[in-house]
């Protein structure tokens, strides 16, 4: 028994002008296919864009920008979206239109800087260590107050944990001590 997936015959609704572009439509050797990934023709431009994609993947375009120039309706936006699709969602893509830059309300440099910041695509990775166990010791380490006088302030907290694997001593920030007191640990 053979099972085949049948494509829907209902008309797909397009949202924007370039939603049909799914990539550059290149062969593995870099040559443009006549009709692929939403592109028809424009073989030299697609092959040149493929070279740019390869340079970006090899990290040879770091710190550089790409400017596509030409008369209206020649496919600059389509090529830019094709490059974006080829690179994937991890590479930031910020499309700009000339009317954004030439605005009477906002300075040109401000618009450009905002788009550059968006294009940097900073990813923040935070590593957290989680310790589970029974609290056997909770002792704040005090030092003389910085402001002088007779008071003392907490420099750090030593927490002893008893786990299945053994015991562990942790030296933690004084703000954690305040949170532990509020939780009545």
| Share in helix | 25-40%
**Strand order, sheet with most strands:** 3-4-5
Number of helices: 5
Mean pLDDT: 81
Q: What would you say the CATH architecture of the largest domain is?
A: 3-Layer(aba) Sandwich
> Can you tell me the overall shape?
elongated
Classify the secondary structure makeup into a structural class. Answer: alpha+beta
DSSP E strands, number: 5
Span from first to last CA? 64 Å
* CATH fold annotation of the largest domain: Rossmann fold
Rg calculated over all Cα atoms: 29 Å
Strand percentage lies at 15-25%
The residue ranges in which pLDDT falls below 50 over 5 or more consecutive positions are none
Question: Care to give the gist of this entry?
Answer:
The protein has 185 residues and is of the alpha+beta class. Helix 1 packs parallel to helix 2.
Set down the secondary structure blueprint.
Blueprint: E1 35-36, E2 39-40, H1 43-57, H2 76-87, H3 98-101, H4 108-120, E3 134-144, E4 152-162, E5 167-172, H5 174-182
Antiparallel strand pairs: 1-2, 3-4, 4-5
Helix pairs in contact: 1-2
